[in-house]
Amino acid sequence: MEKKSIIDLNRLSQEEFRRADKISLVVVLDNVRSLNNVGSVFRTGDAFLIENIFLCGITATPPHQEIHKTALGAEDSVSWMYYEDTNTAIDYLHEKGYIVFAIEQVENSVALQNIQLDKNNKYAVVLGNEVKGVQQKVVDKCDQSIEIPQFGTKHSLNVSVTAGLVIWDFFKKLYY
């Protein structure tokens, strides 16, 4: 096996990416403090053609060198918006017809592998702060919560890892 070259990968330009069909998924970052996590979400969002990222509360916004370090330019291709208050972002998404999921361990959550998605619907997922998770007041506004089953000694995953798992799962269900 020989590694593929950059040319072999046939990547989209930023302009081609902006024009490309996206999956109907908005990722909402609720007070994510690590700029590396923010950059990683941009990069994953670029890889799987998400529609938009909403950066809320203390979540940093581009341009920023620390975001760029992990995003590697994806902060310039993936559309994003900033909201001071996450609930304002959720209200906007609901007004636009999105089904909003909190990615959080709560009563009556649905396991990620059991989520049924309809390609005709629009979706948003909310990922929370590295320590406190998604704010309770934000969870309360969401339509449902998704939980990623975990079987080890820890009860949480890094925000960027969680985003990768969730975005990939939504991509598989909405793109193919």
TrEMBL record:
Gene3D superfamilies attached to this UniProt entry: 3.40.1280.10
tRNA/rRNA methyltransferase SpoU type domain residues: 25-167
Keywords: Methyltransferase, Transferase
Organism: Coprobacter secundus subsp. similis
Protein name: tRNA/rRNA methyltransferase
Biological process, per Gene Ontology: methylation; RNA processing
GO molecular function, one term: RNA binding
PANTHER family the UniProt entry points to: 23S RRNA (GUANOSINE-2'-O-)-METHYLTRANSFERASE RLMB (PTHR46429)
Entry-linked Pfam families: SpoU_methylase
InterPro entries: Alpha/beta_knot_MTases, rRNA_MeTrfase_TrmH, SpoU_MeTrfase, tRNA_m1G_MTases_N
Domain of life (superkingdom): Bacteria
A GO cellular-component term linked to this record: cytosol
